[in-house]
Amino acid sequence: MPTTPEMSMDMTTVGDTGLLDTLQHEVAVFARRAEQTRLGGVGQVRNSMDRAAYLLLNRLDREGPMGVKALAASMGIDSSTVTRQVAPLVDTGLVKRTSHPEDGRAVVLQLSPRGAARLEEVRSSRRQLMAELTQDWAPEEREHFCTLLTRFNRALSARMSVQGAAPAEQPPAS
User: Would you say 96 and 90 are in contact if contact means Cβ atoms under 8 Å apart?
Assistant: First the structure.
């Protein structure tokens, strides 16, 4: 008989309860610390780009130019949120608005050369932070952590989409 997440919770044993309590606590602590630091990196670039900007720039970098609706759908947020979040990125020259090549009335957003350079600067700083935080981890431990964190994020996104809430960000495919 198939099980639902609710049924799985009902079947949790006393031993699992402690482990699940630890897991939920560590996820809560991680979320708080990640938000406090924005996992912004090290050096001058530390905390220099908010999460929304980072995720939008990453998406445009990975998937290329797209319209507001497509960007919103790919990120699991509504178009008005994307429009609001992308405005300062356009104002600062990190994102360019251009006409759609096939429909001149439609607007396409794309990463500008300045945006690509800035994104790489932030990525580099964040890579350095990740290296520092995991410097005493074996390469296999880093890989295993990435695998599990990706799996966790995908499960969370899937659950949110089933419940009708839009996921904040889909992790990249492995």
Answer: yes
The single-letter code of the amino acid at 165 is A
Query: Quick one: which of 27, 46, 30 has its CA closest to 126?
Result: 46
Distance, CA of 76 to CA of 21 (rounded, Å): 28
* pLDDT digit string, tens, across residues 54-112: 999 999 999 999 999 999 988 888 899 999 999 999 999 999 998 777 776 778 999 99
Q: Specify the pTM.
A: 0.72
Radius of gyration of the chain (CA): 19
Please state, in angstroms and as integers, the Cα–Cα distance from residue 169 to each residue in 9, 101, 106, 133, 135, following that order. 26, 27, 24, 23, 27
Q: Please tell me what DSSP assigns to residue 48.
A: -
Phi, psi of 66 (to 5 degrees): -160, 165
Place of tokens 């319209």: 67
Using DSSP's 3-state secondary structure scheme, residue 98 falls into strand
Neighbours of 53 (CB within 10 A): 21
Lookup: tokens for 17:
């309860």
> Which pair of tokens denotes residue 1?
């008989």
